[in-house]
Write a structure and sequence with these properties.
- The N and C termini lie far apart (45 Å).
- The mean pLDDT is 94.
- This protein has one domain (3-127).
- The protein has six helices and no strands.
- The chain has helices at 3-33, 40-45, 54-62, 66-72, 74-93, 103-127.
- With 128 residues, the chain is mainly α.
Length: 128
C-alpha cells in the first residue's frame, strides 16, 4: 500500500473511531437517562423524517431485538449494516472505486439518497 493510501486509511480510521466513541457515549447516556435527541422536523411538522426511530432502532438492535429494531426504522435497519460493510472494505483494501470522487461512489450515493427520499414519502403516507 502506498504511503498516500496508508495516510488516507489512517485518517479515515481515526474519524471512524471518533464517531464510534461519540455513538457509544450517546448510547450510554440514553440507556441511563432515558433522554434522547428529539426530531426537530417531527416536532415542527408532525411528519416523520427519514431518520426518525434511529435511536430506538439502535437501542433495540443492541439488545438483539431485531424485529423491534426493524419496526423503528426499516430502511436504516438494512442500510447501516451495508454501510458498515462498505466501510470495512474501504478500510481494509482502500479500493479506488470507493473514493469520494469515483463514479461508483457517486452512483451509490445517488441510489442511497433516492431510497431515503422514497422512504421519507412512503413512511408518511403509509404510516411506517
Amino acid at each position: 500500500m502506498s504511503p498516500e493510501k496508508r495516510h488516507r486509511r489512517d485518517a479515515l480510521l481515526k474519524k471512524v473511531l471518533w464517531a464510534a466513541a461519540i455513538l457509544a457515549g450517546y448510547y450510554i447516556f440514553v440507556r441511563f437517562t432515558g433522554l434522547s435527541i428529539p426530531c426537530v422536523f417531527r416536532e415542527v411538522t408532525g411528519l416523520k423524517c427519514p431518520g426518525c426511530g434511529v435511536t430506538h432502532m439502535a437501542m433495540h438492535a443492541a439488545h438483539l431485538e431485531f424485529g423491534r429494531a426493524f419496526k423503528s426504522n426499516p430502511l436504516l435497519f438494512f442500510m447501516f449494516p451495508f454501510f458498515g460493510a462498505v466501510l470495512a472494505v474501504k478500510l481494509i483494501f482502500m479500493p479506488d472505486s470507493l473514493e469520494s470522487n469515483s463514479r461508483v461512489y457517486r452512483i451509490g450515493e445517488r441510489i442511497c439518497l433516492g431510497l431515503v427520499m422514497v422512504f421519507w414519502v412512503v413512511r408518511n403516507i403509509v404510516g411506517i
